[in-house]
Design goal:
The chain is of the alpha/beta class and 418 residues long. The protein is built from 19 helices and 14 strands. Strands 1, 2, 3, 6, 13 and 14 form a six-stranded mixed sheet that branches. Strands 8-11-7-12 form a four-stranded mixed sheet. Strand 4 and strand 5 form a beta hairpin. The chain is globular.
C-alpha cells in the first residue's frame, strides 16, 4: 500500500467522524446494496484477478453470484458513509487497519466474527478491534524494512553501528556537500518512518496500548533520546536536503536506485520499482538500535470489512471466513506476493524463502499496531515538524517533542469530547 496515500487519508478521519456520521450514523436502514442473490465485493485493481480466481467455489456453495467492483480502496472507504445510505455501497471491501476503528465507531462498518480466529495472534486481533468490538477480518500484514544494495555491501547491516560505519565509508561521500555521506538514508522527517526509532527508545503514541489519547508518549525521555540520535544523522552525516519532508523520499529513492546509497529504510511497496530498475538488492529487518533494542515501526496492513448498510450481512460474514481461510490466503500470497495474516498461510509464504517476504514477517514481530482511534489523525498533523525542528537546529529535541505534543493535545481537546 502506498503510505503517502494512507497518511493523507488518515488526516481526514477526525472530519469524517464529525461530519459524515450524520449521513446515516451507521444505521442499516438505507437501500439494499444487493438483491439477496448477489454479493458485491469491492477491491483494488491489483486484487481483481485473485477474487475472480477464488470466487467460483463460494458461489457454488452458497448459490450466489459474486459481483466484483474495481475501485481504489481509499476512495471506496471515503465513499462509504454516503454510498451506504444511498444503497450503492458494496457489501464487503478491504480496509487499511488504521481506518477500521474509526469507521466502525462511526457506525459505517458491521461487527463481525472471526471464523478463522485460531489463525490470528493478539497483534492481528488488535488491528481490527476497537472498544472490544471486531469490525474486520485481518488479511494482510505490512511494515517498513531495510533494503540494501548487494553490489555495494556483502551482507545486510545487523546493527546501527554497521550503518554508522557505512556513513564513514568514503565510497558514499556526497559530492555536492563536503563532509556529508549517503551510505545509509531514512526519511525520518516523516513520522511514519521515524516512529520505529522513537518506539525503540521507549516512546509511544497513546498509552494503554494505543487507546488512551490523554496519555501521549512522544515527548517522554525515550522519544527525546530517539530524536537526539536522529538529529546527529541530520546534522553531522546527511545532506541538508534530507530535512525536506517533501523531497527527501525522491532523493532517497534516486540515490538508492542509482547505486550511490548502500542501505535505506523503506516499505514493501517499493520493491517493484527496484525490480524494474534491475537493482541487485536485498531485504532484511531493520538493524538493532544503539541501545540494543529493536526498531519498532508501525504494523500496517489490510483487513476485510462488511458495510453496515448491507442487507447481506450473513452472506458477507461467510465471505470473510472464506477469503481469509488458509487455502485462499496461500493463493493470495502466490498471486500478489503480499504477506497473509493467516498463520498457516504466513508459514507457507515464509517457506518460499523470498527475501522481502521473510523480512516483513521478521520485522512485523517487532512492529506495533497503529492506534485505530479517531484521535490518531491529530498525531499525523502534530508530528509533522516533530523531527524537522530538531534536525534543523531550530529547537532542541526536547522542545521539538514538547511542542509537537502540545499541538496534538490542543487539537484533540478541541475536536473530541468523551
Amino acid at each position: 500500500m502506498n503510505w503517502k496515500k494512507k497518511m493523507g487519508i488518515s488526516l481526514l478521519v477526525a472530519g469524517l467522524s464529525l461530519s459524515l456520521a450524520a449521513c446515516g450514523g451507521g444505521s442499516s436502514s438505507g437501500k439494499s446494496s444487493s438483491d439477496g442473490k448477489t454479493l458485491t465485493v469491492s477491491v483494488d485493481s491489483g486484487y481483481k484477478k485473485y477474487i475472480n480466481d477464488i470466487k467460483g467455489d463460494f458461489e457454488k456453495e452458497n448459490d450466489v453470484k459474486i459481483k466484483v467492483v474495481e475501485k481504489d480502496m481509499f476512495e471506496q472507504l471515503e465513499a462509504l458513509p454516503l454510498d451506504g445510505p444511498a444503497g450503492t455501497a458494496p457489501d464487503v471491501m478491504m480496509a487499511a487497519y488504521d481506518r477500521i476503528g474509526s469507521l466502525g465507531q462511526q457506525g459505517h462498518l458491521a461487527e463481525v466474527e472471526l471464523g478463522n480466529k485460531d489463525q490470528y495472534d493478539d497483534k492481528d486481533m488488535k488491528q481490527v478491534t476497537i472498544d472490544g468490538k471486531i469490525y474486520g477480518a485481518p488479511s494482510v500484514i505490512e511494515t517498513v524494512v531495510l533494503y540494501y544494495n548487494k553490489d555495494l555491501i556483502d551482507k545486510a547491516p545487523a546493527t546501527f553501528s554497521d550503518l554508522e560505519n557505512l556513513a564513514k565509508d568514503p565510497r558514499f561521500d556526497f559530492s555536492s556537500e563536503k563532509g556529508k555521506n549517503i551510505g545509509f538514508l531514512a526519511k525520518w522527517t516523516d513520522f511514519y518512518f521515524s516512529y520505529g526509532l522513537l518506539a525503540g527508545y521507549g516512546g509511544y503514541v497513546f498509552g494503554d496500548d494505543g487507546t488512551n489519547p490523554k496519555d501521549i508518549g512522544l515527548n517522554n525521555a525515550g522519544s527525546v533520546e530517539g530524536i537526539t540520535y536522529a538529529t546527529k544523522w541530520f546534522q553531522d552525516v546527511w545532506p541538508k536536503g534530507m530535512q525536506d519532508n517533501k523531497s527527501a523520499d525522491d532523493f532517497i529513492q534516486d540515490q538508492f536506485v542509482k547505486g550511490k546509497t548502500a542501505a535505506i529504510i523503506g516499505g514493501p511497496w517499493s520493491a517493484a520499482n527496484y525490480k524494474e530498475a534491475k537493482l541487485n538488492y536485498g531485504v532484511a529487518k531493520i538493524p538493532t538500535l544503539p541501545n540494543g533494542k529493536e526498531y519498532s515501526p508501525f504494523a500496517g496492513g489490510k483487513g476485510w470489512v462488511v458495510s453496515n448498510y448491507s442487507k447481506n450481512k450473513e452472506l458477507s460474514q461467510k465471505w470473510l471466513d472464506y477469503v481469509t481461510n488458509a487455502d485462499n490466503q496461500k493463493k493470495f500470497y502466490d498471486m500478489t506476493n503480499e504477506i497473509p495474516v493467516n498463520m498457516e498461510a504466513r508459514d507457507y509464504a515464509a517457506g518460499k524463502n523470498d527475501e522481502l517476504t521473510n523480512a516483513v514477517i521478521e520485522q512485523y514481530k517487532n512492529a506495533q499496531p497503529m492506534p485505530n482511534i479517531p484521535e490518531m489523525s491529530e498525531v499525523w498533523t502534530g508530528a509533522e515538524n516533530l523531527m524537522f525542528d530538531a534536525a534543523s537546529g531550530a529547537k532542541t529535541p526536547q522542545q521539538s517533542a514538547d511542542d509537537a505534543v502540545k499541538v496534538i493535545e490542543d487539537n484533540i481537546s478541541q475536536k473530541y469530547t468523551k
